[in-house]
Design goal:
By secondary structure, the chain is mainly α. It has 13 helices and no strands. Helix 2 packs across helix 3 and helix 6 runs antiparallel to helix 8. The protein is globular and about 80 Å long. The relative contact order is 0.17.
């Protein structure tokens, strides 16, 4: 049994026949499998995951009465496919969907995934807001200082008439500051992703979260998550280099462009295929390579769906960020950056007034969009495991819902 509020069985899916570290149904087990052993051996409610010390677990819930035969329930009435292969709508004794936390325990639709992310931000803002606010402030502070001192030196001090050694020193200093900025952003993003993942894992069960609990639960996996992020970044850079550099070194622009297009397509495919590696690593306590394998298995057969939801989330968060950042940036540019003249002579982007206003707008934008992106990623992972591995059974037991999935339609003809 995992001691985190997280998730069952690291490693491969139950269908692989591998052992688990936690209690889980057998391969393909589900509410509609008709396996009497599963319901007969259910542990007491809440054993799968417990709240942190000092928190009061939610009152065990009883599933509501089953609908009448033929009436259907939720979105699975009217002839649609029920979760885990159950019959659509017509079973009078079929267990209905319950919702202990921010999502119902069944395969999720796009609206439910987005709504679950927003609901977590709203209901658990005491944990979500400080995490994202602190990270956003640190990241934007590093960006402001980099833009002021690194780019300020390049714009104001470098010139074609400067000695070569001075130009090299300026370039070296700029690259050093940029590297430090990128490193700070990487560390901040990894820490925020890890802690937000734990907050969302509790919100799914209806459990409250705290910053301290999120930090304690995520800290053991932080080195692995950092390694996963670096591995993906280095792999992407290597892929681009292998496909683009030969054409560039050969002086063939067409060949280099073709290689870049191929690299872009492969990066997009790999980005979606490994998009669930982070929640798999955090919630299953999986190693780096195993988390990549888990993500690949969960995404298989659902690439376009996950791509569409992820792309839509990026468009939504990008639009929200633009609505916040763009007006404030323009305001700071004309109030403190000298307006169009400052843009023309290159001094606008390095004035303190403009940088402070731009930094504040960036903090606001990141504070809102960062948890939404992390939440959608976690909920996509949960959705795929519900669809493939009947994770809703584990979630129901963890939330203290008694007898979930024990009433099944008759099997056999």
């Amino acid at each position: 049994m995992n001691d985190s509020p997280g998730w069952a069985t690291p490693g491969s899916s139950p269908s692989d026949g591998e052992g688990s570290h936690g209690t889980q149904p057998a391969s393909g087990g589900s509410a509609g499998s008709g396996d009497p052993k599963w319901s007969a051996e259910q542990p007491p409610p809440g054993q799968w995951s417990s709240p942190a010390a000092g928190q009061t677990p939610p009152t065990p819930q009883q599933p509501p009465a089953a609908p009448q035969q033929g009436a259907g329930w939720g979105p699975y009435g009217g002839g649609q496919q029920a979760p885990h292969g159950g019959a659509p709508g017509g079973w009078g004794n079929q267990a209905p969907v319950v919702k202990p936390g921010v999502i119902p325990l069944r395969p999720l639709g796009l609206g439910e995934i987005l709504d679950g992310a927003v609901a977590t931000m709203r209901k658990h803002w005491r944990a979500v807001l400080p995490i994202t606010l602190v990270v956003a402030v640190v990241v934007q502070l590093a960006t402001v200082l980099t833009q002021k001192f690194a780019f300020g030196d390049v714009v104001l001090e470098s010139s074609d008439s400067a000695p070569l050694d001075e130009q090299l020193d300026t370039l070296g200093s700029t690259m050093g500051v940029l590297s430090a900025d990128i490193f700070i952003q990487l560390v901040g993003t990894v820490a925020a992703t890890a802690m937000l993942t734990m907050v969302f894992s509790r919100a799914i069960l209806g459990h409250a979260s705290s910053i301290g609990a999120a930090w304690r639960e995520s800290r053991p996996q932080l080195p692995r998550l950092f390694g996963l992020t670096l591995l993906l970044a280095l792999g992407s850079a290597l892929l681009v280099g292998v496909l683009v550099l030969p054409g560039a070194l050969a002086g063939s622009t067409g060949f280099a462009v073709l290689g870049g297009l191929v690299a872009l397509g492969l990066l997009l495919w790999l980005w979606v295929r490994f998009s669930l590696a982070s929640p798999a690593l955090m919630l299953e306590k999986a190693p780096v390579l195993k988390s990549l394998t888990r993500s690949s298995k969960l995404v298989k057969g659902s690439w376009w769906r996950i791509f569409g939801i992820t792309l839509l989330t990026s468009l939504i968060t990008g639009f929200i960020s633009s609505v916040i950042v763009f007006p404030l940036t323009i305001l700071g540019l004309f109030l403190f950056g000298g307006g169009l003249e400052g843009i023309a002579d290159g001094t606008a982007a390095t004035s303190w007034g403009y940088l402070i206003v731009a930094g504040i707008s960036g903090v606001i934008g990141l504070t809102i969009t960062m948890p939404m992106q992390a939440g959608v990623n976690v909920l996509l992972y949960v959705d795929q495991r519900i669809r493939r591995e009947a994770l809703d059974l584990e979630l129901a037991r963890a939330a203290g819902i008694e007898n979930y999935g024990t009433t099944t339609p008759p099997t056999g003809g």
